Amino acid sequence: FFFFLMIRRPPRSTRKESSAASDVYKRQVHGTEERVMEERKYEIDACIMKIMKARKKSVHSDLLEALRSQLKFLLQPNVIKRRIEGLIERDYLKRDDKNPNIYIYVS
Question: I need a labelling partner for 62 at 20 to 30 A (CA). Which of 9, 37, 70, 77 fits?
Answer without folding.
Answer: 37
